[in-house]
């Protein structure tokens, strides 16, 4: 069978139009289905009584944990920090700065330590309980490029305890939340 040039052209335009229509149709079908998927998953989880995953996704309110924390427990957690930090009054800087007076003080609070530019650049911010909690959760997420090569404390209780301990390592401890 022989097709003329015009017939071939007509045929390919037809096939082309067909493909475009088909792809569009498929695309819109797929896209319109996607928004329902998470809702279905949530519904399924609720049906299964999975409350834990929702709690894990929500940010932790660190304040009540700090108020209830035992500084003595925090001193134990501080064992993980001791490789780099001293927290005594007048203690020397080590790999990291001395941490006396850090809670409630400015970022880069030590005048004698050479900070990374990212922490030095935050000098007008205060090490509040919330800021310390965020930093200690993941130092490099909080301050990309920080010299503190420490993965972070994943347990909120550990962060609360070490913050409660550091709070006491100060000439004028910040009021408890
Ligand atoms: C591997 C060494 C290392 C470990 C372990 C470490 N740090 Fe650090 N830390 C540093 C360094 C270095 C800096 C300075 C960061 C910069 O300049 O970017 C720092 C900075 C800090 C700061 C900010 C000080 C300021 O003056 O702004 C706090 C607070 C802090 N560390 C707390 C802790 C706590 C609490 C732990 C333990 C849970 C800990 N660090 C573990 C090395 C360490």
Automatic annotation (TrEMBL):
Q: Which Pfam families match?
A: Cytochrom_C
Q: Does the keyword Transport apply?
A: yes
InterPro entries the UniProt entry points to: Cyt_c-like_dom (IPR009056), Cyt_c-like_dom_sf (IPR036909), Cyt_c_1A/1B (IPR002327)
Q: Where is the Cytochrome c domain?
A: 69-170
Q: Which UniProt keywords apply?
A: Electron transport, Heme, Iron, Metal-binding, Photosynthesis, Transport
Q: Name one GO biological process term.
A: photosynthesis
User: Which domain of life does the protein's organism represent?
Assistant: Bacteria
Q: Give a GO molecular function annotation for the protein.
A: electron transfer activity
Q: What does this protein do?
A: Cytochrome c2 is found mainly in purple, non-sulfur, photosynthetic bacteria where it functions as the electron donor to the oxidized bacteriochlorophyll in the photophosphorylation pathway. However, it may also have a role in the respiratory chain and is found in some non-photosynthetic bacteria.
What protein name does the entry list? Cytochrome c family protein
Question: The organism's lineage?
Answer: Bacteria, Pseudomonadati, Pseudomonadota, Alphaproteobacteria, Rhodospirillales
């Amino acid at each position: 069978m022989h097709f003329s040039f015009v017939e071939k052209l007509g045929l390919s335009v037809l096939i082309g139009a067909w493909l475009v229509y088909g792809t569009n149709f498929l695309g819109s079908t797929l896209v319109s289905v996607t928004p329902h998927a998470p809702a279905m998953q949530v519904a399924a989880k609720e049906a299964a009584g999975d409350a834990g995953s929702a709690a894990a996704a929500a940010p932790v309110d660190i304040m009540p944990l700090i108020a209830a924390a035992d500084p003595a427990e925090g001193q134990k957690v501080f064992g993980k920090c001791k490789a780099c930090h001293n927290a005594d009054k007048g203690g020397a800087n080590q790999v990291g700065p001395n941490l006396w007076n850090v809670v409630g003080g400015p970022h880069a609070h030590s005048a004698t330590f050479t900070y990374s530019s990212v922490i030095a650049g935050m000098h007008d911010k205060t090490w509040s309980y919330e800021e310390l909690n965020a930093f200690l959760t993941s130092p490099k997420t909080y301050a990309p490029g920080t010299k503190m090569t420490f993965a972070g404390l994943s347990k909120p209780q550990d962060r609360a305890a070490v913050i409660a301990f550091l709070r006491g390592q100060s000439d004028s401890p910040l009021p408890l939340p």
